[in-house]
Specification:
- The protein is an alpha/beta fold.
- The protein is built from 14 helices and eleven strands.
- Helix 6 packs parallel to helix 7 and helix 11 packs antiparallel against helix 12.
- It is globular and about 55 Å long.
- The two termini are 28 Å apart.
Length: 351
């Protein structure tokens, strides 16, 4: 039964089948910690370039990108690159930094990534993709699971499908513990629906091997529906979690057979915004946190009863005093929050 479904990635046991995906530019330590506090069983850091990880310096901003909090274990570190030679030292560095799982990105559809032969580009080059998998698996200790993120192929051609299955089966043969599959092709980017029918076919093919599904998970209902309709072992929530950590707890309530909780109240939103800012300030320093939090705040604004006005106010913030002024103006009086789950986020980030 779905209510009793548990998820494991190799030897890493997770409490539920609901996890937070890697999100370029977003899933830093504060976002991951909030996801875990709100019920995510596991979270993956924003995708990191292999060569960056290998040569990461000692300045605060660079170290923040590979920082891990004690309370977020188990946590995954995601790598992306083009040259198999660069993956092994980067994978070892992430293990040293405290990541419990090493994830490899073969899914990012962003143009500049594809142009550098990274991310989704590698779905068209099975030999290179599988060599990267082997290098990472050989580089990290046996007890550290290696996982993979894929899209359903470069496009909808038969050749693309053949290459998908070559990489999918080959990765498991080389010791990958789990694979997350996004139901869109690389060519689709974030346009059009994610094919859950394809995810169901993947899980049927995989049998007992661990498969997570991704794509179009913008509500708790969608997370439960994907589990029910596709049979995947877990769901990886990506853009649906930006500015909405409540999606994890809401999904757990549905999985437990309880009613869907209402959207967070205005004060509930305010408290989490302050909590997020505090985590960001502790990691990055208050000045940088104030600038970084704008991109999160405009996502949180979708849950406010006045989403456009609140979004515009956060966009205009230039100093931290103005940040607090927005909270005082729009979040001072409590009231019911807004259900924004039907609004699809078109933000084009690697996921």
């Amino acid at each position: 039964m779905i209510a009793e479904k548990r998820l494991s990635i190799g030897g890493v046991q997770l409490g539920s089948p609901v996890v937070q995906a890697a999100l370029s530019g977003y899933s830093d330590l504060p976002m991951r910690v909030l996801a875990r506090r709100h019920g995510a069983a596991y979270a993956v850091c924003e995708v990191l370039l292999d060569t960056f990880v290998t040569v990461v310096g000692t300045n605060r901003r660079n170290l923040a990108r590979i920082a891990v909090a004690d309370e977020e274990h188990p946590v995954g570190g995601q790598l992306m690159g083009a040259n198999p030679d660069d993956f092994a030292p980067a994978a070892r560095r992430l293990v040293e930094a405290g990541f419990d799982v090493i994830d490899i990105n073969f899914g990012c559809p962003v143009k500049k990534v594809l142009g550098r032969c990274r991310g989704g580009y590698l779905l068209g080059v099975p030999e290179t993709a599988l060599e990267i998998v082997s290098r990472v698996r050989d580089a990290v200790p046996a007890g550290v699971p290696v996982s993979l993120k894929m899209r359903r192929g470069i496009d909808d051609s038969a050749e693309s499908a053949d290459k998908f299955w070559t990489i999918f089966d080959g990765a498991f043969e080389r010791g990958v513990a789990a694979i997350t599959v996004h139901g869109r092709s690389v060519r689709q980017k974030y346009v059009g629906p994610s094919s859950w029918e394809f995810l169901a076919a993947v899980k049927r093919h995989a049998g007992e091997r661990t498969v997570l599904g991704s794509g179009d998970l913008f509500s708790a209902e969608a997370c439960v529906s994907m589990l029910e309709r596709t049979g995947v072992d877990g769901v990886s929530v990506a853009r649906g979690a930006i500015g909405n950590p409540w999606i994890f707890g809401q999904t757990l309530e549905l999985l437990a057979g309880r009613p869907l909780p209402p959207p967070p109240s205005i004060h509930g939103q305010r408290d989490v915004l302050r909590e997020h800012f505090g985590l960001s300030a502790a990691l990055h320093g208050e000045d940088l946190a104030g600038r970084m939090m704008r991109k999160f705040a405009i996502k949180y604004s979708r849950l406010h009863p006045e989403p456009i006005a609140v979004r515009d106010a956060f966009v205009a913030v230039t100093v931290n005093a103005e940040w607090e002024a927005v909270l005082e103006r729009f979040y001072k009086i409590d009231g019911p929050g807004r259900d924004a789950s039907a609004e699809v986020d078109e933000t084009a980030e690697c996921e």
